[in-house]
Specification:
The complex is a heterodimer. By secondary structure, chain A is an alpha/beta fold. Chain A has 3 helices and 5 strands; from the N terminus they run E-E-H-E-H-E-H-E. Helix content of chain B is 37%, strand content 25%. In chain B, 35% of the residues are buried. The chains are: A alpha/beta, B alpha+beta.
């Protein structure tokens, strides 16, 4: 699992690559901790390379979303594959995020 | 329903019309009857009048003939003694000497100068006054009998047969009528007349001695139509008598002949008394041919008839009133009956709906097509609705079932029954512990239970993968466990006969029925149901079925009955038992609700196409191993990516749940995963030796909440439920004998259709 985080002028650009299972979630969570607090910038998460996500990964996404919403910004998920979309649908998360 | 139509038409209005019509009809009959009877009365009266007049005439005639005989008997003496003038005094004396013959005077009047020494007139007259007789010669210039009518007639040789009464001032000094015959000398020449005077007072008395009616009376008119006799003034004064006499003589007054013309009749009106009346008269047959007149007043003629008519009318009016009241009551009762019929129909209709609703509450067996369980239940209410209940459903590879019997029957019991079944269903969705389920049903049942309704209830939870039966009994009939001949049961189980199957009571603590004490703590019990064994549950409708002699079927009989069915499948068992009960209770009304439930445990021996195990430490870093293991196993089973990904997610969530919740933080433990596949079902069994933790009872995430409201937890179990076909949790107790530790076992099942 590879995670990158890039801070642009008006937003954060995050890329997920690989499988975000429970083990990986511990690491990823620590890495993205800065996004959990509001700073008013939108977060764009590029999921092109994300193959799998467990509930611990979903918790990271919801933590980021809570931070962004508190600052009045939004979280955009880019290129989510069908399997993960199904999981987002099952959990109702699909309604909380902007998917592009 | 003809009844209803009649009743609906018989309202009060119709009753009134009926009464009026009946009254009119009765009045018509009464009028007809009145006039008919009036005719009869009139004809009877006419005959009666004729008879009375005839009798009076005969009596008059009798007296007059008597007087005539006296006269005639003296004629011979007179002729023999014509030469003895003095004898004539004896002769006239003889005429009047008899008492009671109404003769007041008797005389013999000779031709003028018949006896030289007796002068011109000679009339010896015997006069009877108050029982004394005086004899005088009364012939004189003042009393010149030769000028009298009767003398003139008799001296010519004729007989005077009672002339018109007149006042005899010289002789009788009374109103008299005279009978006279001539006395002849030897040459046959009339020389004298022999006469008797008779008063007429007695005639009136005699003819008025018999009264037809209190105020009816009789008059007598002479042949010339003059009044001869009239009754006392009270009955008829002279004025009235003269009026009637005038009417009889007046040919213009319309008169009718009655009784074959013997009686003449006409109507009159007495102005003074203000009464209408009828006058009847007939002429005497013998001389004198006087008119006998009978006067009757209408009010007396028809008095009784009018009274009778009034009584009849009164009685029929009373009768009609009574009839009217009866019709009114009848109509009223009819309306009441109709109302109650309608009400009853409505209640029956509602009961039918209730019956259907209750039937719909029964669990659907065809929804449960499983290889590891076979069951069948039946509920036969004694009335439209019953107080028995049974239910079953499968949740998380566990069969939840119950059977119960509410005290009482009918609608009240049905209410409690529906409530209890609903409570069971709801409670069983949240707990797999039958004692907890029972506690909560009991608490709800006790709330507001003012009518003290209670129910016996047996709740069972059969874990299908292991055959572990947890149960809790609230005073219900103890279920049977039966084993077929082929069943490999526990060696300690009681055999029915030569080892061919067995039957025994489930070991059950009675506890208390629900609905009595809200704080009663129900006790859970456990046992293992062996493959092939059948649980047979029933209500007292089985043991208390009654035959024609009111004898109970009894527990022993019931047990034998069920034992006989031990080789059958549940459906056949139930059908056989019901058929037997129906035969036993033939020709009697079903006394109580009958409910039967048979559950046969039939787990299949698994033929594993795949069986892999993985042991992990309770550390989330171990999940990487799990990911590799799962991917490898699913790849071997040729499971395509989307499904494989979902299965992996479900298993990962289950394993992580176990790692995080079964063990306290910072303690070491193991989580074991076993994957098996039998060609249809892919099973993941996750077990650990940690604290009891049942993820199936944890609340799942609410997907409708917003990001801010979403709690972090609950996602895992929700994903597991969504992704798998069935899940099951069991806490397996440890065994001290083998040193085996207690464990949590979570089974996830996915049906694979290749």
């Amino acid at each position: 699992m590879n995670t990158t985080i890039e801070q642009l002028e008006d937003k954060y650009l995050v890329t997920f690559e690989g499988e975000l299972d429970t083990t990986a979630a511990t690491e990823v969570g620590e890495k993205l901790q800065s996004l959990y607090t509001a700073n008013g910038k939108d977060v764009v998460i590029d999921c092109t390379g994300l193959e799998y996500i467990a509930s611990s990964g979903l918790r990271i996404l919801i933590s980021i979303l809570k931070g962004a919403k508190a600052g009045g910004s939004k979280v955009v998920l880019k290129n989510v594959n069908d399997d993960i979309k199904d999981v987002l649908k099952l959990t109702g998360f699909i309604n909380l995020f902007d998917l592009v | 329903m003809d009844f209803k139509r009649i009743y609906s038409k018989l309202d009060g209005h119709t009753g009134l019309v009926f009464i009026i019509l009946a009254a009119i009809l009765l009045e018509i009959i009464s009028v007809f009857q009145y006039y008919y009877t009036r005719g009869i009365v009139e004809r009877n009266l006419e005959r009666h009048v004729l008879m009375l007049l005839s009798v009076s005439a005969q009596r008059m005639d009798g007296i007059m003939r008597g007087a005539e005989t006296i006269v005639l008997s003296q004629v011979w003496h007179a002729q023999q003694h014509l030469d003895e003038p003095e004898y004539m005094e004896t002769l006239v004396y003889n005429l009047v000497k008899n008492e009671g013959d109404k003769i007041v005077g008797g005389a013999i009047c000779f031709k003028p100068n018949y006896y030289a020494d007796k002068g011109y007139w000679y009339e010896p007259y015997a006069h009877q006054i108050d029982d004394s007789i005086t004899i005088n010669q009364i012939g004189s210039a003042q009393h010149d009998y030769t000028k009298k009518e009767f003398y003139k007639i008799c001296i010519k040789g004729d007989t005077v047969k009672w002339n018109t009464p007149y006042f005899d001032a010289d002789g009788a000094q009374n109103i008299v009528t005279t009978f006279g015959v001539p006395i002849r000398d030897e040459q046959g020449e009339p020389v004298a007349t022999l006469i008797v005077d008779m008063t007429t007072e007695w005639i009136s008395e005699m003819v008025n001695s018999i009264h037809l009616h209190p105020s009816s009376f009789t008059l007598i008119l002479s042949t010339q139509g003059q009044l001869i006799a009239l009754p006392e003034a009270e009955l008829c004064d002279t004025k009235l008598a003269e009026k009637i006499a005038a009417m009889i003589n007046d040919s213009t007054v319309e008169k009718e002949k009655r009784v074959n013309g013997h009686v003449t009749c006409f109507e009159f009106y007495d102005e003074e008394k203000g009464r209408a009346g009828h006058v009847y008269y007939a002429r005497k047959k013998y001389e004198p041919h006087w008119l006998m007149v009978k006067v009757c007043y209408d009010d007396e003629i028809y008095g009784e008839l009018t009274d009778m008519r009034k009584i009849t009318l009164g009685l029929s009016l009373i009768g009609l009133l009574v009839l009217g009241l009866i019709i009114h009551r009848f109509a009223h009762n009819g309306r009441k009956l109709q109302k109650s019929l309608m009400k009853q129909e409505r209640i029956e209709g509602e009961l039918q709906i209730a019956r259907r609703l209750q039937a719909q509450m029964q669990p659907l067996e065809n929804k449960m097509v499983r290889s590891d369980i076979s069951l069948h239940g039946i509920l036969k209410p004694a009335r439209e609705v019953g107080g028995d209940l049974y239910d079953f459903f499968i949740r998380d590879e566990k069969l939840f079932f119950c059977i119960g019997d509410v005290s009482g029957k009918g609608v009240p019991a049905a209410f409690i029954m529906a409530m209890t079944q609903t409570l069971f269903h709801n409670m069983a969705l949240h707990s797999s512990n039958p004692a907890h389920i029972m506690d909560r049903i009991n608490a709800s049942a006790c709330r507001n239970n003012e009518s003290n309704m209670f129910a016996t209830l047996f709740v069972g939870v059969l874990d299908l993968p292991t055959g572990l039966l947890r149960y809790c009994n609230a005073g219900h009939e103890i279920p049977f466990v039966i084993g077929a001949a082929t069943t490999k049961g526990d060696a300690t189980k009681k055999h029915v006969d030569d080892s061919m199957g067995y039957i025994q009571h489930l070991d059950v603590k009675a506890n208390l029925p629900i609905g009595l004490f809200s704080d009663f703590a129900y006790e859970k019990q456990e046992t293992i149901i062996a493959p092939g064994e059948t649980l047979f549950l029933y209500t007292d409708g089985l043991t208390e079925a009654r035959n024609e002699r009111q004898e109970l079927l009894g527990k022993k009989h019931a047990m034998q009955l069920v034992a006989d069915c031990r080789d059958m499948m549940p459906k056949q068992i139930i059908e056989a038992v019901v058929a037997h009960v129906e035969r036993y209770a033939a020709n009697t009304e079903q006394s109580d609700d009958l409910t039967l439930l048979a559950i046969r445990y039939t787990p299949q021996e698994e033929q594993h196409l795949l069986d892999e195990e993985l042991r992990l430490g309770n550390d989330v870093k171990e999940v990487a191993k799990l990911s590799t293991f799962i991917k490898d196993v699913l790849a071997r089973l040729d499971i395509a990516k989307p499904l494989a990904s979902k299965l992996r997610l479900a298993v990962e969530e289950a394993v992580v749940n176990s790692m995080e919740y079964a063990y306290p933080a910072d303690s070491r433990g193991e989580v074991n995963l076993r994957v098996t596949f039998d060609g249809k079902k892919l099973r993941f069994v996750i077990s650990d030796h940690g604290f009891p933790f049942n993820p199936t009872e944890a609340s799942t995430a609410d997907t409708t909440l917003s990001a801010e409201e979403r709690p972090i937890g609950g996602l895992g179990i929700m994903l597991i439920r969504e992704l798998m076909d069935s899940i099951n949790y069991e806490r397996i107790s440890g065994k001290e004998s083998t040193g085996e530790k207690a464990k949590n076992v979570l089974t996830l099942i996915k049906n694979i259709n290749h």
